[in-house]
Predict the 3D structure of the following.
Amino acid sequence: MAEVTESLLRTYVESDGLALAELVHKGEVSPLELVEAAVVTIEKLNPTLNAVIHKHYDMAREAAQSVDRKAPFAGVPYLLKELATSWKGSPNTNSSYYLKDVVSDFDAEVVTRIKKAGFLLVGKSNAPENGWSISTEPKLFGATVNPWRAEVTAGGSSGGSCSAVASRMVPVAESSDAAGSIRVPASCCGVLGLKPSRGRVTMAPYADAWHGCAYFLANTRSVRDTAAYLDAVAGALPGDPYQPPVPEKSWLELSRHAPKKLRIAYSVTPPDGRGIDPEVKQVVLDTAKRLENLGHTVEEHNMALDADNAWKTYTHMSCVQTAAVFDWLAAVVGRPVTKDDVEPITWAIIERGRATSGIRHISDVEAVRQMGRAIAMDLDAYDIFLTPTLTNLPRPVGFYDMSTTDLDAYNDLWSDGVFMFPFDMSGQPAMSIPVGMSKSGVPIGVQAVGRYGDEATILALATVLEQEVPWAGRRPKVAA
């Protein structure tokens, strides 16, 4: 076991992933030393935060012996989200009692890429059951705590990843998003969260998820880590249903160059007609003004979207795939799922999915695709569309109650994320950037949306904001 000095711990918690890898490249720190620093940090903080629900310390120690020390993230400790992605030898429970004994027996394609990039898996991060909440409070593992304020949600469904990254347990953690689950917890915890373009990261061995409306990437504390992570995992396989354009240069290189004069639109008017917190609104307006002062053309533009109807159609569509997944899992578990195996809202989703006809489902899919196209066309004149991430400050723990059986009432609670799901439908890249802080001491994210396939402009703009409104020095109450 490598010695963990105070100097090493300080370096570990103050560095982003690329900085840690650079130390490995130079031979100044070994991958095993980084693993041990992560272990010490997780063991110190996780009893308070409950962000890590499976610990893979020995797996990481073993992998550290043979990791490619020239890889872009050589030796960097990493968390995988407890949802869907298969890493051989790691539990894959989706935070559900039904799957509590399932262990992955293969690596997903993206995991092969993650390993090649040099990451070392030290554990898995907490998530709500089946990912269907914008808070992280599964009955199986218990709630993840927001490191800024314990009484408000860390967000979801990637709440464990964001709490861990914000508190400096790890610099990078996997996340996924079908209705805001990368971006919402990024806003709640004050980290970065990029939802990439549709098809940017292959779903292999699966062909698709939620008809192209589910996405996987990561949460980080630095723009360059997000860009380099995208470089490491992006890419479609031959025959994948969606294949976005690929830039000639790496996203890391493109992120370093301040964008030329952009045409930027912003909105502080939620498309469902509901209210917006004054502090959230002001952060968006301040960011728009800052960008205007930097020479960009900025104008207000409100979305031409019937958000209530869109959300009802979108959530109805998703129930069918959820039901189908649980039916498929019967072969994995060895028996069909029952009402007692899952949380009440999950059972309500399964039942609605099973009760939906094929004709109704394909009509929902078509409607979602048409609405997605309309969203992209409405915003096509702009290089960037700026919005709140959440329209309100993080809600109290328990607000998104998965013990309810009223699916429609539960879905209505998600109105704070009304600027999230439209871009899951349209396939456009969208990033929550932690530019603001509330008077009560919780972060406020602003969302930057780009054209399909253009993560580069978002990353470049985020780099400018990272310099203009430096968030790296902010520290939550619970942090290393």
The two ends are 21 Å apart (CA to CA). Residues 307-333 form the longest helix (27 residues). The chain has a mean pLDDT of 98.
